[in-house]
Design a protein that fits this description.
single chain, 306 residues, alpha/beta, TIM Barrel, six-stranded parallel beta sheet, 11% strand
């Protein structure tokens, strides 16, 4: 009854009057998602991100895996690149030191990885402090009690959780982009980028549809992207497309002011908030998936690792 009443309150709230589409952009796995490469190439990727962010005035948050700063004895260069995100107006958040997932980790181990995850970030952000945490793999605790214990632990250190309502699966599609780039197949690089943007638009449309069905109005969305070359090279095109669809870019802070993020819900163990809401209301989700040619390189990589 409490859950049903909250849904009714959301539908009848004053917020219903505002039909503007709004989205907060978040970027995971800074400084680099996926296969690692040299600082010169990493700098170019970062510059591509920052150019699009500046052009479209996107108040983004980037979530850092500090373990990646120490790859191949490149700490100085990688920390300098991480600082450039801050200099470019991007707020930094904590994504754990080693990208440890919570689903199969003990609470104490997860808390330890969390604490280690912002040592450099805190130094770079002075006098400000990191405010947001993103669960690696979007995995929350095995139980609601474990998750509450962690969130209380994080809150005592000034953190709020940063959930997700739109996932564009660039962590998967980037493998197709990387394969084309490694083969110097610029035509395929272009095709992958164009199809990625089209697919991302489909995921946005689907999330809007689900939100409309659940709440009777647009909500303030939070989209999950990753620090990879695929998104770096196509963020400008994606931003143009989103603007053409009526989206306004907002901060995570603004997004979390939407009452939907405070609603009671059944525990599902994922930071995919749209999934939580659908599960709580008994709705099954069936989001669009990428075309096969965008999935295959990732799946091949996974098979080769076994």
């Amino acid at each position: 009854m409490r859950l049903q009443s909250f849904f009714l309150l959301l539908v009848l709230s004053v917020c219903v009057c505002a039909q503007t589409k709004e989205v907060a952009i978040t970027i995971d796995d800074l400084p680099l998602n996926g296969a690692q490469f040299e600082p010169v190439r990493l700098r170019k990727m970062t510059d591509n991100f920052l150019a699009a962010i500046k052009k479209h005035q996107i108040p983004a948050v980037g979530f850092v895996n500090e373990r990646l700063l120490y790859h191949n004895n490149e700490a100085d260069a990688r920390i300098a690149i991480l600082k450039s995100w801050l200099d470019g107006g991007v707020e930094l958040g904590n994504h754990n030191f080693s990208h440890l997932g919570f689903a199969n980790a003990a609470l104490a181990d997860f808390e330890d990885d969390f604490v280690r995850g912002d040592a450099v970030t805190r130094l770079l952000m002075r006098p400000n402090k990191p405010r947001y945490f993103r669960h690696p793999f979007l995995q929350m605790g095995k139980t609601a009690a474990d998750e509450k214990a962690f969130e209380d632990f994080a809150a005592a250190r000034g953190y709020k959780m940063a959930p997700v309502t739109v996932d564009v699966l660039d962590w998967m599609i980037n493998a197709a982009h990387a394969k084309a780039r490694a083969s110097n197949d610029e035509a395929m690089v272009k095709q992958v980028g164009e199809e990625y943007v089209k697919f991302a638009a489909q995921r946005f449309d689907y999330s809007e549809q689900v939100a409309q069905e659940l709440f009777g109005r647009p909500i303030k969305h939070i989209v999950l992207m990753h620090a990879n070359e695929l998104t770096a090279e196509n963020l400008d095109a994606m931003a143009v497309l989103l603007k053409s669809k009526g989206y306004k870019f907002i901060s995570v802070e603004e997004a979390l002011q939407d009452p939907v993020y405070q609603m009671p819900e059944k525990y599902l163990g994922t930071s995919d908030r749209l999934g939580h809401w659908a599960f709580s209301s008994g709705k099954k989700l069936s989001p669009p998936q990428p075309p096969d040619f965008l999935q295959q390189p990732y799946l091949e990589n996974q098979r080769n690792r076994r």
